[in-house]
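Morning run. Coffee first, then this:
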Amino acid sequence: MNLKFDEVLKTKKGGKVARVNQLDVNRARKHFADYEGKLEEMADKADAFEVTDEQSAQLATTYMAQATALKKEIDNLRKTVIAEAKTFFDSVNTFVRPFTSSLDKIIGGLKTKFGDYQLDVEMKRREEEKRAQDAAAKKQAEIDKAAKKAGIDPVTMPKPVLPKKQGPTRTGFGSASTRTKKYFEVTDFSKLPDEYKSINTKALTAAVTAGIREIPGATLKEKAIVSVRGS
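And here it is:
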């Protein structure tokens, strides 16, 4: 069977030439039309068939062999139908792949730099938040102590104004945002409890998820997870 990616045909009027796109599902389906009735007949026979003795077992073997051969025949036809198109697609993917790999490297490098910066901003924000909370707690303790000494009801101070979390970075081309993810980095393997050795990264991840924040021989850290969305 000689199937071409583009088949050149002559029309009835004027001898004009037209190109027919072989990447047409309906055109491809015609190559398999003869199999539909045969498959229905085989399916009905298989549904009704029972294996009860050696003779029917041998017959079932014949049916299975025939069905297997037909399956191979259909698959070979499928490969023939798509062969030229597949060659084209594979060739395009081959020369485009370096472009996407290069872009993945560019995006990955920028994500690391962007994430490191955002993580640094978040750590500074947390430090500022803790200072504000500690200062408010200290001031409240002083008020409570003075009120107790004077025998009066203490005044409750308003909650401190805390620094806002960093939002997404937006431009006319898109946006980028980060979220932090806690993880354990092993610093002294000899001090790790046995259940975390070998190194069981799944167990360490599960420990973080379970709320564990201290494991001997490991340090809880965070890394930035960057998401990028186009406009």
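The chain has a mean pLDDT of 85. Good start to the day.
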